[in-house]
Amino acid sequence: MEFIQVIGAGLAGCEAAFQAAEAGHRVILHEMRPHKTTPAHQTADFGELVCSNSLKTELVNSAPWLLKQEMRRLGSLLMNAAETARVPGGHALTVDRAIFSAEIHRTLENHPNIRVERGEVESIPDSGIVIVASGPLTSDLLAADISRVTGSTRLFFYDSISPIVAADSVDMSIAFRASRYGKSLDGTDDYINCPLNKEQYEAFIAAVRTAEFYEPHIPEDKTPFFEGCLPIEEIARRGPDTLRFGPMKPMGLIDPRTGRRPWAVVQLRQENLRADSYNLVGFQNHMKFGDQARVFRLIPGLEHAEFLRFGQMHRNTYINAPLLIADTLQLKTAPRLFFAGQICGVEGYAESIATGLLAGRWAAALAEGRPLRPMPRETALGSLCHYITHAEARTFQPANITFDLLPPLDEEARHKLRHDKKARHAEVCRRAAVAFEEHLDSEPFEEHLDSENVAPVLT
Ligand SMILES: Cc1cc2nc3c(=O)[nH]c(=O)nc-3n(C[C@H](O)[C@H](O)[C@H](O)COP(=O)(O)OP(=O)(O)OC[C@H]3O[C@@H](n4cnc5c(N)ncnc54)[C@H](O)[C@@H]3O)c2cc1C
Predict the structure, then answer these.
(1) Omega before 335 cis (within 30°)?
(2) The domains spanning 4-154+319-405 and 161-315 adopt the same CATH topology
């Protein structure tokens, strides 16, 4: 039996390798770390989370929840690992990144169908089924070869990492624990909140605006930031109050010392199970490290913060998916090649895992000579693939899963539920679950999913 080769043991690659191996195929999983690393990875671990430790919301009937439910239903390795590694994170699925990676590592290293090969893949193997899952920080040699194979130049945008501080360096006589609107899955106060009054906020904005920055790798006017992950200095540049309506919004938080809502708030989210480190939520930036320490210590509660990691900015590489790949993630001109993860034009951890999961299953189907069936458009998985392969190619930007990507409800349902957004979202999720189950029922190879351990989408 020929090997299926997966390039990159990141989020998408690990899930893809697992799915293909579980379907009975022999898989070679290539990973260049530790021999060569990326500007963002810090370990040689599989499935390393390079920035935040959150896989987004678990609120029932939200779009990110639906995507995760569909992955769970398809037996996702990384969703299982996330469950094992879960730490308190309000309504988000937040994990201890070390436990998360260890769990993935253990499963893949011990899988009888998987062989791990460490070392940089410099070019796409010229025969056999290959899943390219080398991520937003694909090595330069491989990126050049992807350009050659796809016949297009690379695309870039900048992405970023939030700073992390030691928990015991936060002044808890100023900062307070609370989840926004008290929304935590288990009723606990998962976030540490640093409150700012108007004067403190204005001083902070002035400091951000005058800080020194690392030079971007491409000229400033050609830096296409991803709107969902803007650096704070870019948000501050857009207007004095823009940060207060973005990552520093105080909504749903009351400072227990004043009994009032602060003017602005910086939220800190738990990083690991030991709860000894916290990240500054949404505080990605590319200020010089010395300036980050100076500017962030202006935040009340962080005056003596010990920084375990500073924020950073990085290039992001992705292909022009609408031009190049089919909705089964296969390169149109060479269907033996699949693209998965951030490089195929999705944005986010869960979205990367999702496309890895599908690529792994479809690679297995291709190896068996079975037809490759796209997921129904009504599902989150189907809509994600539909977006990246049908968006406007000229202005294509990676996307997170949102309800905007799913088809609208029919006229009658829209009218009936026009005053109730929650009910509309619930209906979209119900419709997705029905389409999803019908799709699985019509698949001849889904017996292994009937196990009691696999939940239906809508639980
Ligand atoms: C700096 C940064 C911060 C981000 N922060 C977040 C965040 O907070 N939340 C979020 O949801 N998303 C975030 N993202 C976006 C995205 O979700 C992550 O990058 C995610 O890890 C993408 O998964 P992936 O599997 O596509 O790539 P990765 O997880 O990066 O995996 C790719 C793997 O391929 C390996 N590799 C690369 N080239 C080669 C080669 N030539 N040969 C062999 N191996 C190779 C790499 O070492 C890596 O292990 C961030 C992205 C970046 C760049």
Answers:
(1) no
(2) no
- The residue extents of the domains of the chain are 4-154+319-405, 161-315
Cβ(7) to ligand 1 under 6 A?
yes
Q: 137 CB less than 6 Å from ligand 1?
A: yes
Residue 24, pLDDT score = 97
pTM confidence score: 0.79
Query: What tens digit of pLDDT does each residue of 105-124 get?
Result: 999 999 999 999 999 999 99
Cα(456) to ligand 1 centroid in Å equals 29
Instruction: Give Cα separations from 159 to 50, 153, 373 (angstroms).
Output: 11, 19, 33
Atom of ligand 1 nearest to the CA of 134: 34
Query: What CATH code would you report for 161-315?
Result: 2.40.30.260
Q: Whose CA is nearest to atom 11 of ligand 1?
A: 348
Could you tell me the CATH superfamily of domain 4-154+319-405? FAD/NAD(P)-binding domain (3.50.50.60)
Low-confidence residues of the chain: pLDDT under 50: 217-221, 447-448, 450-452
- The predicted-structure confidence for 275-311, as pLDDT tens digits, reads as follows 888 999 999 998 998 999 999 999 999 999 999 888 8
Mapped onto helix, strand or coil, the DSSP state of residue 400 is: coil
Contact between 160 and 311 under an 8 Å Cβ cutoff? The reply is yes
